[in-house]
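FORM 12-B: Structure-to-Sequence Request
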């Protein structure tokens, strides 16, 4: 795992060079994270935050007391004005670090992170139609429509290969999604009809959406740029990101009468509780309960 040419590398190197024992401890951290097959982004974020703690105290974190760490975390929030996201990463990073060194009790003493019950932003079907025709380039129009049509996450979209699209079975094979799980999602008939034109004009080699280098996947920033450029060309006033298309996909399916468990499977959620949030957003008409016996003898 390489850390060159990044601020993260600098922070870790500073701690490795100046804090006694940090270099060896950090190696254990990397070794454990690698064996547990954690994502690179998690390792980068946790490692950076722990290195900041080590630099602040001039000591490896697992030799600090709970009071010292709580004072440090309080300072981050109140005096340094760090973002909520940074605070969470610091707490999660310290928890993981303590578990690496067999200090589960210390991990449990870290401040709890309360999850805010906020509802995601969702586009209406009309807003989706407006958004998908906004970009000038066919590639960008197709990218936005494709992302929505299958409810894909950003990384799932950018790493999708041409061989993953089955137009005969009308399925998309999502490989190694979140949690490193494979799944199949539905391929839209309209998208399948437009696919030959896209392939003929854009001519991707390996990935469905490639960057400037042929055969290499499009970068996350480039994909986000596509939607950031498209939204101002529409009447949409909402805060829109690529993930908004995924939320809209799930909500519209629910409004179209698809059951919540099928939506959970399509989204690749491990827990139904994650999917249930869309019940609070979707505009679904409630129906009066009735006995199924009464419908047994109704004429078709």
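FORM 12-B RESPONSE
SEQUENCE OUT:
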């Amino acid at each position: 795992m390489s850390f060159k040419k990044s601020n993260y590398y600098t922070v870790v190197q500073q701690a490795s060079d100046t804090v006694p024992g940090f270099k060896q401890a950090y190696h254990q951290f990397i070794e454990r994270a690698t064996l547990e097959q954690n994502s690179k982004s998690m390792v980068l974020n946790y490692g950076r935050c722990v290195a900041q703690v080590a630099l602040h105290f001039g000591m490896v974190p697992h030799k600090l007391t709970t009071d010292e760490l709580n004072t440090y975390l309080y300072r981050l929030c109140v005096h340094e004005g760090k973002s909520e996201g940074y605070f969470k990463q610091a707490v999660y990073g310290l928890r993981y670090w303590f578990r690496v060194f067999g200090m589960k009790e210390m991990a449990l003493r870290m401040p709890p992170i309360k999850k805010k019950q906020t509802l995601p932003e969702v586009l209406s079907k009309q807003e989706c139609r407006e958004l998908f025709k906004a970009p000038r380039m066919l590639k960008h129009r197709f990218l936005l429509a494709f992302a929505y049509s299958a409810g894909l996450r950003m990384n799932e979209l950018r790493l999708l290969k041409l061989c993953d699209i089955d137009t005969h079975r009308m399925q998309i094979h999502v490989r190694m999604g979140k949690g490193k799980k494979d799944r199949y999602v539905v391929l839209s008939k309209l998208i399948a009809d437009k696919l030959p034109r896209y392939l003929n004009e854009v001519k991707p080699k390996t990935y469905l959406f490639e960057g400037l280098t042929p055969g290499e996947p499009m970068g996350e920033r480039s994909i986000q740029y596509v939607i950031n450029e498209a939204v101002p060309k529409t009447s949409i006033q909402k805060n829109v990101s690529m993930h908004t298309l995924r939320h809209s996909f799930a909500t519209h399916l629910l409004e179209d009468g698809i059951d919540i468990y099928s939506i959970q499977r399509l989204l690749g959620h491990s827990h139904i509780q994650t999917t249930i949030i869309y019940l609070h957003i979707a505009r679904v008409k409630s129906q009066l309960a009735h006995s199924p016996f009464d419908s047994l003898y109704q004429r078709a």
